[in-house]
């Protein structure tokens, strides 16, 4: 029987590409999203992948949402923690709410989702967790102390949980995308983006499918000896 994967923020951008890549690799996929119902409806109509709305920063919503997916689709074998937001500002302008929201969703979402699913993976002796970090969590970025801290936290979270999952057949890895051509990056002003692209040795933004391919590898049977790793996919922007 096909293994079952849940992708958070899986209905647009990088998450949409991950949902589609996992499905073409033979997984049964469920996609979570945060509130853009119009986009989620269009995604489900085109792909046939069911979509489920809940806030990954809400602990109980993750427990309930995953229980609903398990009741309707089956036991979750793979979690891709992709949902994320930015609330950029230099520190002296960043509000406490900007800090908390980014930590709550980007890092808290990873904890909430694995709390809802890890016990089942351990019991069944197989699982895959892939967390989407960021080049800016590795290198830091002006105007992103909240985002860089949350993404950097994801990399520590990944290495700690990998040690706990290993003896149960559960691998835990991260991908660290560079700048990828999605809605999140189209919010960056063009002059700033031009300066960023000038520092990417490959000389362009990445495509969502290029991240999805890396995630799909980490979720595969063949990646069973890979755990606690971060796969950087950034056009050479940062060599970690
Ligand atoms: P987008 O802004 O294009 O999409 C974000 C996705 O996350 C959407 O599906 C959104 O749902 C979902 N989401 C946001 N908040 C929540 C929430 N509280 N609960 C559930 N879902 C939520 O982002 P990208 O595709 O660009 O980014 C995906 C991931 O990759 C993020 O973690 C991001 O930080 C990371 N990343 C992106 C880079 C880039 O250059 N684009 C670079 C490095 C990392 P909805 O559609 O309902 O709003």
Give short descriptive properties of this protein.
Rossmann fold; 49% helix; globular; binds NADPH dihydro-nicotinamide-adenine-dinucleotide phosphate
Overview of the structural elements:
It is a single chain. With 240 residues, the protein is α/β, with parallel strands linked by helices. It has a single domain (4-226), classed as NAD(P)-binding Rossmann-like Domain (Rossmann fold, 3-Layer(aba) Sandwich), CATH 3.40.50.720. It is built from nine helices and seven strands; from the N terminus they run βαβαβαβαβααβαααβ. It has helices spanning 13-24, 37-47, 59-72, 96-124, 135-139, 145-165, 183-186, 190-198, 208-219, and strands spanning 4-7, 28-33, 51-53, 78-81, 127-132, 170-177, 230-233. It has a seven-stranded parallel β-sheet, with helices on both faces. Strand 2 (28-33), helix 2 (37-47) and strand 3 form a beta-alpha-beta unit. The longest helix is centred in the middle third of the chain and has 29 residues, at 96-124. It is globular and about 50 Å long. The protein starts with a strand and ends in a 7-residue tail after the last strand. The mean pLDDT is 97. The protein binds NADPH dihydro-nicotinamide-adenine-dinucleotide phosphate (NDP).
């Amino acid at each position: 029987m096909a293994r079952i994967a849940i992708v958070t923020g899986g209905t647009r951008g990088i998450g949409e590409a991950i949902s589609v890549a996992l499905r073409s690799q033979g997984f049964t996929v469920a996609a979570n999203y945060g509130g853009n119902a119009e986009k989620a409806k269009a995604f489900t109509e085109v792909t046939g992948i069911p979509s489920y709305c809940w806030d990954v920063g809400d602990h109980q919503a993750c427990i309930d949402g995953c229980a609903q997916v398990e009741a309707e689709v089956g036991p979750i074998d793979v979690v891709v923690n992709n949902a994320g937001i930015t609330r950029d500002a230099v520190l002296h302008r960043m509000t406490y709410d900007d800090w908390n929201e980014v930590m709550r969703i980007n890092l808290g979402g990873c904890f909430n989702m694995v709390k809802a699913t890890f016990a089942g993976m351990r019991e069944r002796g197989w699982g895959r967790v892939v967390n989407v970090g960021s080049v800016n969590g590795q290198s830091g970025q002006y105007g992103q102390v909240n985002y860089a801290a949350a993404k950097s936290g994801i990399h520590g979270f990944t290495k700690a949980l990998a040690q706990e999952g290993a003896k149960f057949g559960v691998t835990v890895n991260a991908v660290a995308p560079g700048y990828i051509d999605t809605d999140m990056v189209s919010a960056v002003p063009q002059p700033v983006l031009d300066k960023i692209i000038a520092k990417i040795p490959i000389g362009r933004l990445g495509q969502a499918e290029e991240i999805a391919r890396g995630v799909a590898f980490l979720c595969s049977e063949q990646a069973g000896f890979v755990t606690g790793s971060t796969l950087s996919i950034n056009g050479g922007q940062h060599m970690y």
